[in-house]
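Incident review: delayed structure delivery

Summary: a single-chain prediction request sat in the queue longer than the usual turnaround. Root cause was a stuck worker, restarted by the on-call engineer. No data loss occurred. The affected request and its eventual output are reproduced below so the record is complete for anyone auditing the incident later.

Affected input:
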Amino acid sequence: MSARTLKLGFWTLGIVLILVGSWAWIDRWINGDRHTNYGSIVPWGLWVAAYIYFIGLSAGSFLVSSLVYVFNIKRFESVGRLALYSAVVTLILALLSISADLGHPFRAWHVLVYPNFRSPMAWMIWLYSAYFILLLLELWFVLRHDLVVGAGRPGWRARIYRILVFGSRDASPETLASDRQVVRVLATIGVPLAVMFHGGVGSLFGVVSSRPAWHGGLFPILFLVSALVSGGALLVLVSAIFQDGLRRNRETVQALATLVLGLLLFDLLLQVSETLVGFYGNEPDRVENLRLVYGGPYWWVFWVWQLGVGTVVPIALLALPRTRRNPAIAAAACGLIAIGFLAVRLNIVIPGLADEQLQGLTAAWHSARFSTDYVPSPMEFTFTAGLVGIGLVLFGIGEWFLPRPEETAAEEVASVSA
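Output delivered after worker restart:
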């Protein structure tokens, strides 16, 4: 399959998903939570799971970019700016997802103006804001030189580039070196910031002592490792599609897929350890939650989606050198890993809330909202599908619109030769 066909498929799927999700967005903002299936017992559903999923993709993508801009690993240099752009796109999707879950999303600014710094959520939102600003600054400095060069070309893109460079016209080697220093500083600041904010998401769950499924010190570490796995897997897939990773950048795709395999095995070790400790500790509420994950109504999310599609099949494909060297197979395996981690997030959020903490509580009151049996409604599914469509289209716009370093280099060589 050619890169052009893959790009066309990306655009087509994105536009279709946006059209599918558009009615759900209108329904959500007109009718609120009326057509959702979460309630008093399970107050968090698909949108919260999607939120921590997209946040993990963003943090993981950014941390992979730090391999280039902080640790100067040349092997991954070709995916550096793509990793930053992926972090921006997936952060936008995460914020859109959680905004749908909030009852009054337009009051979110209250947390910034009237913060309670004893709350992990307040810290998390402040860290999100700082992270978003840093991401945009770093991406701008990474692209500034190419934007300045592109601004000198004819056409409508050049006019937009002139706006984006804010009057900058200096494309000298000295300024380029200065930009790289700024990027290195920003990326160095961003590493602990990304660790803190995504570890903070894990802490938001881990500090809830009333929920044995979440309570524990390993949760922040699990969130960070999962972010690296899912973010790296997303980069392999996107690089294969938009950077000619099946031919020109095949070595980068192979190296990144190998890194993702190692991280996936480490993440699997942590998850197995967490499960074994839970069963061996024999705490009734914790064991009941594990039974919900592995044998309850959500069993297929773990056994089929998370373990089968997202873990066993990709490991089988990436563990064999012959298949791992094939960039198309490596990209497909990493695509399965990225998809599988949504199941990981669902298995954190929903079973963690669906165990009945007071025996007989749901039988004491009869209401559709007072139940542990949560399945996302069609509106929730289509809303989330629309978000995925937005992400696909944003990736397509970035590949189509953002300047390519090889084009800039070729143009500079031509100007010097002339």
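Verification: DSSP finds 15 helices and no strands in the chain.
Action items: add queue-age alerting; document worker restart procedure.
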